[in-house]
Design a protein that fits this description.
The structure holds 2 protein chains of 2 kinds. By secondary structure, chain A is an all-alpha fold. Chain A contains 14 helices and 2 strands; from the N terminus they run H-H-H-H-H-E-H-H-H-H-E-H-H-H-H-H. In chain B, a hairpin with a 2-residue loop joins strand 1 and strand 2. Classes of the chains: A mainly alpha, B mainly alpha.
Chain lengths: 317, 290
């Protein structure tokens, strides 16, 4: 077989599927307005957070619990600048602010061993929350702030744009030399340094890039909540959701975290409205069960089953 | 002025005793069993509410409750390690992967225990008064229950230190902390020792919860705050070092007392700043090796 037809076929089918999906997503508010659009924006938001978490934490193995911090920085950007500036600029600044915070945090902490990095990022969210609360109570004299409201279709389209950008970034980082460098850092950091990779630089830059999308997502989601305070903006659950969704979906493939985020967000919305008092317990049980029984996630499980069905005849292709 | 200083220092020491106890528990769980147990504070909360229930419903003296609350929390911790964490340990690819996985699993436990507690006891603060008469210490006045708390915290810590230093089982624990694989080769039943450490860690948390319930109001969501303090103290004192945890506990108690005196709203923020500086400057802590 000619090599050209092989490559074009290989890219044609996924390319077509992506195009159809994008068209469907872009026209979605036309035939299903109202709650489905709001639900879909939430799903897109969690996909954005989860995939951007995976961009850094997936290949390197450094577990970041700072997602809530970057998301919250975006939220506060929208709260402070929302009235003064047009929406696209506010969202851009939200992403940029998160980028700067991540750059600083990364430069300070990415020398730390894995588990210390996890605790540090966890502490960071709480630190920002408490300092901000103190500042708001004593300096600005308020506890919370109001955010200007944007209609839900706009929220949806902005989220869709952020989603497409996140997916493209994740895809190209994975395919590039940069992605291979990240992978080798995850496998053996010292060996990676010896092959000439500037380990710290690669880690810090990736960490900061992944924060941009979380900040942008926070800036647009803030407009849906209308009222925010430090406890709402810097909610630790936002740090754990992406970890759980990524592990649940499986991090081996790019679509794993996406599937995890879709299933989980849907379940979350259903559970919160139906049985709010049991929601957190179910969340905890699922978290423990996934870690125990699905170490490679849903995608890993399906691949394993698929191999069993096909008798592993494709192993060497 | 002198009295205020005395007030702040004694207040810090009294708080430090409880911090030390909590940190010793976490130090066992993380230093030996390698589980960074984010649900540690939930065992404190369980201990506190068990004591509260025993006192309010059955009229049992909180100090007598020690012999009831302790074993119950220990058994819960032991079983949790035997079922959940042992399984995770054997299925994880590397010790680093186990640390990450067990951290996440303990987060799951946090959500489960905390919300079950909310279902049982509600989310409003509760409390009781016990030994609340004032005691004058050179001008600084404290409730008697806080002094009793400090006495018990130091006593429990000492007994536990002797257990580690003098008994055969203590030796096995120390061996497992240094090198689990070799300890296993030397005939230490490693899974049982690790589960024992986890259980003992939970026991310390339960005792701390009991002591906390004597002095402060308790709430189903109180756990995480103490977990964070415990993590900071453990890192401050050096991972796996029992004396380090004790010294770290008192240092943090003092700092907390001073910051609270100056600006109450910033005490938690001050803890984080200390923690972050510590991680950046000396991640091995005061008594840490290497």
């Amino acid at each position: 077989m000619d090599i050209n037809t092989f490559t074009s076929k290989r890219f044609l089918v996924p390319g077509l599927i992506t195009l159809i999906l994008l068209i469907l997503l872009a026209t979605f508010p036309l035939y299903l307005p109202g709650y489905p659009v709001i639900l879909l924006s939430s799903i897109l938001m969690y996909i954005v957070i989860t995939v951007s978490w995976v961009i850094f934490s997936g290949p390197t193995g450094y577990m970041s619990l700072a997602s809530a911090a970057f998301f919250g920085v975006g939220i506060y950007t929208a709260a402070i600048l929302g009235e003064a500036l047009p929406l696209p600029i506010v969202i851009g600044i939200g992403g940029l602010a998160s980028f700067c915070v991540a750059l600083l945090v990364g430069a300070l902490t990415l020398r730390l061993r894995g588990i210390y990095f996890a605790i540090f990022t966890f502490g960071l969210v709480e630190l920002i929350k408490h300092v901000l609360l103190f500042w708001e109570l004593h300096v600005t004299g308020t506890r919370g702030r109001f955010v200007i409201v944007v209609d839900y279709t706009t929220v949806y389209y902005v989220m869709l744009v952020i989603f497409v950008m996140t997916m493209l970034t994740a895809y190209f980082i994975r395919r590039s030399k940069f992605g291979s460098a990240l992978q080798s850092i995850g496998e053996n950091e010292e060996a990676a340094a010896h092959t000439g990779i500037n380990v710290t630089l690669v880690k810090v830059i990736t960490f900061a890039i992944s924060a941009v999308f979380m900040g942008a997502a926070g800036a647009i989601m803030a407009t849906r909540w209308t009222y925010i305070d430090p406890y709402i903006a810097f909610n630790l659950l936002i740090s754990f959701m992406p970890v759980l969704m990524a592990i649940f979906g499986g991090m081996g493939q790019l679509y794993g975290p996406v599937i995890g985020a879709i299933i989980f967000t849907y379940l979350k919305e259903e559970l919160i409205t139906r049985i709010p008092e049991l929601y957190m317990i179910i969340f905890g049980v699922v978290l423990v069960a996934v870690i125990l029984f699905l170490p490679n996630g849903l995608v890993g499980l399906i691949q394993k089953l698929w191999k069993r069905v096909t008798g592993e005849q494709h192993e060497n292709t | 002025m002198l009295v205020t200083m005395l007030d702040v220092v004694i207040g810090g020491l009294l708080m430090g005793g409880i911090y030390a106890l909590i940190a010793v528990g976490l130090s066992l769980q993380y230093g030996v069993a390698r589980v960074l147990n984010i649900a540690h504070g939930e065992f404190i909360m369980l201990g506190a509410f068990a004591t509260w229930t025993l006192y309010i419903v059955f009229g049992i003296n909180p100090l007598v409750s020690l012999v009831i609350v302790g074993p119950v929390v220990f058994i819960i911790g032991f079983i949790l390690h035997r079922t959940l964490f042992t399984r995770l340990r054997t299925s994880s690819a590397s010790p680093a992967a186990f640390e990450g996985n067990s951290l996440l699993a303990s987060f799951g436990l946090l959500f489960i225990i905390q919300n079950v507690a909310i279902l049982i006891w509600g989310s409003a603060p509760s409390g009781y008064t016990y030994l609340a008469f004032p005691v004058n210490l050179g001008g600084a006045i404290f409730a008697a229950n806080r002094l009793v708390t400090l006495g018990f915290a130091v006593g429990i810590g000492l007994v536990f230190y002797l257990f580690l230093a003098r008994t055969r089982l203590g030796k096995a624990i120390r061996a497992a902390a240094q090198d689990p694989a070799t300890a296993g080769l030397m005939g230490v039943n490693i899974n049982r020792v690790l589960a024992l450490c986890f259980g003992l860690g939970a026991l310390m948390a339960g005792f701390a919860g009991l002591l906390i319930s004597m002095c402060f109001s308790i709430q189903a969501t109180m756990g995480l705050q103490y977990t964070i303090i415990a993590i900071i103290v453990v890192v401050l004192g050096g991972l796996g070092s029992i004396p380090g945890s004790f010294i770290g506990g008192f240092i943090l108690g003092l700092i907390g007392s001073i910051v609270t005196y100056i600006e109450p709203g910033l005490s938690l923020a001050a803890y984080y700043v200390i923690f972050i500086l510590l991680l950046l400057v000396k991640p091995t802590g005061i008594m840490g090796k290497k």
